């Protein structure tokens, strides 16, 4: 009787792995390994087992499996700023990827208190959490101390660059190259005085993007002197940077903002002063937030592959948790998204 759901039949006995094995014509151990996602099982066999499990209404007991493997099946995700539109989008993809791998996630908002995450590190060390996914440069002090002492822990960082040799795996884009390509585009449409409204000076992403801006200008014989404006990641930071741009004796013809959100504030302020974007000054951001496509004018930017980063980071963390991975850096491709804010035609 295909499609039978024992949970809807009074006093029905829940199907077991042995039942699935009989339906699929394989051994119970093969069913166990297939449902756990073990490698070296033929795809046809894996699909046959999945169909048999679905038809029987089988639901694995994750709690029992966690006890057997001495794992919690929980990944800790550290988020520095839930108000930043980058993070809710990334978090949604992380949650889906973790669920697909048989894990739950626990979220810690470190923007409230950087030391708050140390409490969760205690959970990791006690076995209540299996691994940590960092989404910014900040690493909890307790975690950093353990790594520095040579303890190998399952940790992956995404969105922010991870230097090699730190004991932390990374899934990221080449931030410097992406910024270089964006500035090269601005130069390619005729900009010769290109300001960089940079992010917080200690942030690795801001450092990498500034280096990309400097390299792109240098390779084209363009001057960077006096064209760097210290800004930040928020709209009000971009608005403040716009006032610096407007106060320059020789007005720039292009601005590369460290992210999209600050670009929104910069463009709004420039337009309020009477300047036209892009006719008087071209502007580009970084991140490709959802609003950037409908902003006025639509914003040229670098698209962060947030879904791909989330999936790859969760998969890497799962392998580290299960002892089948190393703390290496994976670089994903970036994409330039060219829109009206940098192009007059």
TrEMBL record:
InterPro entries associated with the record: HTH_LacI, LacI/GalR-like_sensor, Lambda_DNA-bd_dom_sf, Peripla_BP_I
SUPFAM superfamilies (alphabetical): lambda repressor-like DNA-binding domains, Periplasmic binding protein-like I
Q: Where is the HTH lacI-type domain?
A: 15-69
Gene Ontology molecular function: DNA-binding transcription factor activity; transcription cis-regulatory region binding
Alphabetized, the UniProt keywords read: DNA-binding, Repressor, Transcription, Transcription regulation
Q: Which PANTHER family match?
A: HTH-TYPE TRANSCRIPTIONAL REPRESSOR PURR-RELATED, LACI-RELATED TRANSCRIPTIONAL REPRESSOR
Q: What is this protein called?
A: LacI family transcriptional regulator
């Amino acid at each position: 009787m295909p499609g039978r759901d024992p949970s809807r039949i009074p006093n029905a006995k829940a199907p077991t792995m042995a039942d699935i094995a009989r339906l699929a014509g394989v051994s119970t151990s093969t069913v166990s390994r297939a449902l756990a996602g073990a490698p070296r099982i033929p795809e046809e066999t894996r699909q046959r087992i999945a169909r048999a499990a679905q038809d029987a209404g089988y639901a694995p007991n994750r709690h029992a499996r966690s006890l057997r493997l001495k794992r919690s099946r929980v990944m800790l995700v550290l988020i520095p700023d839930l108000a930043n539109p980058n993070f809710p989008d990334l978090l949604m993809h992380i949650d889906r990827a973790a669920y697909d791998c048989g894990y739950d996630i626990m979220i810690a908002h470190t923007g409230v208190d950087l030391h708050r995450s140390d409490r969760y590190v205690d959970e990791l060390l006690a076995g209540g959490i299996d691994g940590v996914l960092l989404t910014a440069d900040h690493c909890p002090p307790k975690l950093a101390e353990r790594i520095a002492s040579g303890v190998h822990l399952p940790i992956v960082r995404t969105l922010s660059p991870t230097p090699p040799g730190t004991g932390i795996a990374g899934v990221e884009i080449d931030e410097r190259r992406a910024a270089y390509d964006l500035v090269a585009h601005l130069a390619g449409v005729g900009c010769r005085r290109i300001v960089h409204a940079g992010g917080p000076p200690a942030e690795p992403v801001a450092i990498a993007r500034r280096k990309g801006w400097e390299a792109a200008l240098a390779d084209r014989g363009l001057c960077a002197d006096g064209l760097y404006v210290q800004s930040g990641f928020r709209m009000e930071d971009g608005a403040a940077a716009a006032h610096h741009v407007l106060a320059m004796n020789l007005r720039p013809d292009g601005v590369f903002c460290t992210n999209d959100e600050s670009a929104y504030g910069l463009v709004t302020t420039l337009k309020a002063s009477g300047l036209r974007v892009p006719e008087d000054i071209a502007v580009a951001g970084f991140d490709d937030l959802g609003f950037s496509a409908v902003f006025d004018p639509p914003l040229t930017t670098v698209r962060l592959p947030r879904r791909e980063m989330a999936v790859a980071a969760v998969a890497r963390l799962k392998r580290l948790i299960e002892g089948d991975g190393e703390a290496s850096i994976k670089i994903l491709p970036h994409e330039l998204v060219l829109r009206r804010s940098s192009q007059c035609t």
